[in-house]
Every structure is written in structure tokens, then in C-alpha cells.
Design goal:
13 strands; 2 domains; 19% strand; 395 residues; disordered N terminus
Length: 395
């Protein structure tokens, strides 16, 4: 029998009366994230961490899915806080959908809009894989997976020191020059987020270089949040502008730092940018507004906010209108690719809005939609596997 008891608990340094439900130790119960048999303020803290982890691209705990809708969102944190404070007595009931299954494999949706003859993008679209090949994420004996260096640089736009990680390619030789890919993390993330083992980026690069499917390249993982103000990442327009400023930080500080310290090839044909969630949004924003700098542009589950819109987290002021989401007379990238999952409870239909705008504006691009992906590593791996195989080969 479940025993309901009142206990004194502290959350965010404030004393509160928490209503806790003692559950059997052997049961996995929604809300009891630390599995101590009690749903209390400690679980609220863990739920908050799960939301931050989800937006930055890490693995999350399904027990944080309080409303049972299959994804972990702000509403889950709100419900858990209300339960602990005693304003609600139970969580929403979950429902199980009954579906029929078939033996056919899921089909990836790939679209190239307004293909220009035998364009490079059209060639890539014909070779898109639903997901990465399983062998591409397995460590193999005798394969060089490169090395990671953590560096600090001075950001002119933030007026402070910032960190970045640099993945040097297999067989790195300082006497040779390499193309550069910039990979952006999700909101609340850091320069370490996209190097999480679940993403497999370092492993995939090593295996694809070893098999001859990818060029040797340097991959840079910057810490995106760029501001002089004493603020922290949040669902606000002020915070979004600090993420948008990665565009200037790249041009004014990161690219000069890379040129000064590493043997890099320059020019748009040797420069790529992609990212996940908020990082996917920023990669698309950077690529579309700076086409003279980036020849290969991607985004995985890109977050809302390039266009003015309203979602469950905030009202986004936007950076441009959908009609401006194009290249005009500027050169289009060799590759422009959006990867997403059909059902994304985190960014909603934001990826579709970018795809629709590009289509309406007649911009050639690849729309890589997974039927069975997620807002996380599954979608990232599918994107990076395809992106890595085709960057820096158009010229």
C-alpha cells in the first residue's frame, strides 16, 4: 500500500512543505528519479537536470517524463514541482497506443528542392542513409580516432575567455592543412556536449576516414553562449541573442584563433557548420546569413527562433522573416541539409518551418526526416554519418 506523508524539504534554497509518496523500492515510478522510494525536492532537482541534458543533447531518464507524453519537457518539471508542493495529488494518467506493425523497414524522407541539373546536393540526396551504418560507431582495432584538445581563447564579443574542443583528425600532421567543421551544441550545453559518447562523432570520423568515405578534417566544438552581460542560458530572447552571437564570435575570434594555431584550409569550400537543437538553429542561421564563409551547412532537430514564433517555452522575437531565409544573389552552399524526426516533442514543428521556408524561397536543400528518430543522439548520429561523408568533396 502506498503511504502518503508530509515532510519538510528544501528546494532552491527555499524551505517548503513537500508532499511525498513512498513507493516500493523495487518499482520504477514516474517522478522518483533517484529511486529512493520518495518523490520529493531532490527529484525536482534531477528533473531540472534532465531537461537541461535533453536540450544539450545528452541522455535522459524516462522517469522524468511526468505527463507520460513520450518526451521530457518543461511541463514535466512544472507537474513535479506542483506535486512536491502539494498543489496536485497525482500525475496525469499515461495512455498506451495500440498500433499495427509491418515487416517493412522505415523509410527516410529526403527531398532536394529545385535541383540544378546534376548538382552535388542531388548526388548526396540519392545516397542518404536512414541511420548510420552500425559499423561506423564501433571502435575497431588498428583504427586511429584522432585526438581531442581543449583550448581557451579570448572572445572579443564576450570580452572574456571561452573554451572550445578541437578534434584533430586521424594521422594529424601539422605540416598539412585541413578543412574545418564547426559543430554547435544544444541550449544549456557546453563545448563538451557534442562529444558525449552517445553522439559517436569522434568514432564515426575515425572509421569513415579509415574506410575512405570521409576527408580528414578538423572539427571544432565551441561553447556557444556569447555575451558581455552577466546572464545565464534561459528561455528568453536575451539569452537567444547570446546564442545568435556565436556568428560574430566565429568570425571575430574563433576563426582567427584556428588560423593562428592550426594548419587549416580557408574559404567556403573548406568550411562547414552544423549543430543540434539550439545549435542546429544557429548553424542554419550562420550558414544562411554568411554564405560567403560556409560551403557546407547542416542542422539536426533545429530549435525555433530564426523566425518570430510562439512555443511552449517563450515568444521568440526571431532573427528574420521566412521570406528572408534564402541566399539571394549570394552563392548557395554545396550542401544544405536539415535532419529531424517526424515526432519531436521538444522543438515541435520548427524544423518543418525552416524546410517550408527554403522550399517556398526556391532554395535547394536536403530534407532528411526520420520516422523513428528522437530529439537526441539517434538523430545526431544519422545526420553526422551522412554529413561527414559528403563535406569538403564538392570541389
Amino acid at each position: 500500500m502506498n503511504i502518503i506523508k508530509k515532510t519538510a524539504a528544501s528546494f532552491a534554497a527555499a524551505a517548503a512543505i513537500a508532499v511525498s509518496s513512498v513507493m516500493p523500492a523495487s518499482a520504477a515510478v514516474r517522478g522518483d528519479l533517484n529511486n529512493d522510494g520518495t518523490i520529493d525536492s531532490f527529484d525536482v532537482v534531477l528533473c531540472r537536470r534532465n531537461i537541461i541534458t535533453m536540450f544539450s543533447g545528452g541522455q535522459t531518464d524516462l522517469l522524468a517524463d511526468i505527463d507520460g507524453n513520450g518526451s521530457i519537457q518543461i511541463n514535466d518539471l512544472v507537474l513535479l514541482q506542483k506535486y512536491v508542493l502539494g498543489t496536485i495529488k497525482e500525475f496525469p494518467q499515461t495512455t498506451t497506443a495500440v498500433t499495427t506493425t509491418t515487416t517493412s523497414a522505415p523509410v527516410v524522407t529526403t527531398t532536394v528542392t529545385t535541383p540544378s541539373g546534376d548538382s552535388y546536393m542531388k548526388k548526396m540526396a540519392a545516397d542518404i542513409h536512414i541511420h548510420e551504418e552500425s559499423s561506423s560507431t564501433e571502435k575497431k582495432s588498428g583504427v586511429d580516432y584522432g585526438t581531442i584538445e581543449k583550448k581557451t581563447y579570448f572572445s572579443k564579443d564576450a570580452q572574456r575567455e571561452k573554451n572550445l574542443n578541437i578534434l584533430l583528425p586521424p594521422g594529424y600532421d601539422s605540416s598539412q592543412k585541413y578543412p574545418v567543421m564547426y559543430v554547435f551544441h544544444g541550449i544549456f550545453g557546453s563545448e563538451d556536449s557534442m562529444l558525449d559518447d552517445s553522439m559517436k562523432i569522434q568514432t564515426m570520423l575515425g572509421n569513415l576516414v579509415a574506410s575512405g568515405e570521409a576527408e580528414k578534417m578538423i572539427i571544432v566544438f565551441p561553447q556557444m553562449f556569447t555575451t558581455k552581460e552577466n546572464i545565464f542560458p534561459a528561455f528568453t530572447n536575451e539569452s537567444s541573442r547570446a546564442y545568435d552571437a556565436i556568428r560574430e564570435d566565429l568570425e571575430n575570434s574563433i576563426m582567427p584563433f584556428m588560423k593562428e594555431n592550426y594548419p587549416i584550409k580557408e574559404g567556403r569550400e573548406n568550411t562547414a557548420v552544423t549543430g543540434f537543437s539550439m545549435g542546429g538553429r544557429e548553424a542554419l542561421y550562420v550558414g544562411v546569413t554568411r554564405p560567403q564563409l560556409y560551403g557546407y551547412v547542416g542542422g539536426v532537430c533545429p530549435a525555433p527562433g530564426i523566425f518570430p514564433t510562439v512555443d511552449g517555452n517563450m515568444t521568440h522575437e526571431g532573427c528574420m522573416s521566412p521570406s528572408e531565409f534564402c541566399f539571394g544573389s549570394a552563392p548557395s552552399p554545396y550542401v544544405l541539409m536539415i535532419t529531424c524526426t517526424r515526432f519531436d516533442g521538444t522543438v515541435g514543428d520548427a524544423p518543418d518551418s525552416y524546410h517550408d521556408a527554403l522550399t517556398q524561397n526556391g532554395v535547394e536543400h536536403i530534407w532528411h526526416q526520420l520516422t523513428d528518430g528522437d530529439h537526441g543522439a539517434i538523430s545526431v548520429r544519422a545526420h553526422m554519418y551522412n554529413f561527414l561523408r559528403y563535406v569538403f568533396k564538392a570541389k
